[in-house]
Amino acid sequence: xxxxxxxxxxxxxxxxxxxxxxxxxxxxxxxxxxxxxxxxxxxxxxxxxxxxxxxxxxxxxxxxxxxxxxxxxxxxxxxxxxxxxxxxxxxxxxxxxxxxxxxxxxxxxxxxxxxxxxxxxxxxxxxxxxxxxxxxxxxxxxxxxxxxxxxxxxxxxxxxxxxxxxxxxxxxxxxxxxxxxxxxxxxxxxxxxxxxxxxxxxxxxxxxxxxxxxxxxxxxxxxxxxxxxxxxxxxxxxxxxxxxxxxxxxxxxxxxxxxxxxxxxxxxxxxxxxxxxxxxxxxxxxxxxxxxxxxxxxxxxxxxxxxxxxxxxxxxxxxxxxxxxxxxxxx
Length: 331
What we know:
With about 325 residues, this protein is mostly helical. It has helices spanning about 1-5, 20-35, 60-85, 90-105, 110-115, 120-140, 140-150, 150-160, 165-175, 175-190, 195-200, 205-230, 235-255, 275-290, 290-330.
């Protein structure tokens, strides 16, 4: 009940009473994907060179517009929530961190470097998948976005969330097993050489790669960080996080210890940095293996702690119920 109320920024208004928390989660995912639009808005510049990256920030109109509009919408909603005293500081900090991570991955020189170095491209992807996506999910920006909208628009969105097809689609998309399989399959598929190289050579394929990476990451983290609390299956969330850490580490390890270049397209592009394409690939594998693995481990340990706290609360509740029942049965 408390979580459902938190997803309803206009709960105090009798004119706006959306139901169906699952449908609202689908709305949240849509809002996050809209926020993440810059991740697949970048064109590829195959003519990039190794020099001058300190000045090669990507100020593309579509990217900047999306980032600035999302920030403006969040700030407008946050101001209203702050006046009512119902904006958790942790959510605001998480949104700021996720938004700044998107800027670092998509606007900073890292993007241009990713066209020439595999390890830079891997850094960009890991920022999107393991930093920006979970931070944006933790911030639950849908609540704040809704506060920024006129009441009539919120009513329309609330009515849409009640539709049976929307609820059914949401139940499918936010199934933990479905999200886990989809996210894992997407990660491995795009690292098959033929598909990965196509993403470097073709702008449309590159856009599709970033779209599926970020969409599945948002779905995965949303399902685990919010959905598991609703269904009280924190233990399964821990398993999904650790198994994801394992298979991503395996992929990173395979890249690191490979004796040949998986992606020949980078041959000749890495010489500016005085490394071979194989060394570049090995560094990229280490980035997927070590830093990303540490993030998964940290989140997994946090979920373990939450699981233990939840178990303690259940035991305490069961004991209090037993004592109360004993008191009622006593003569």
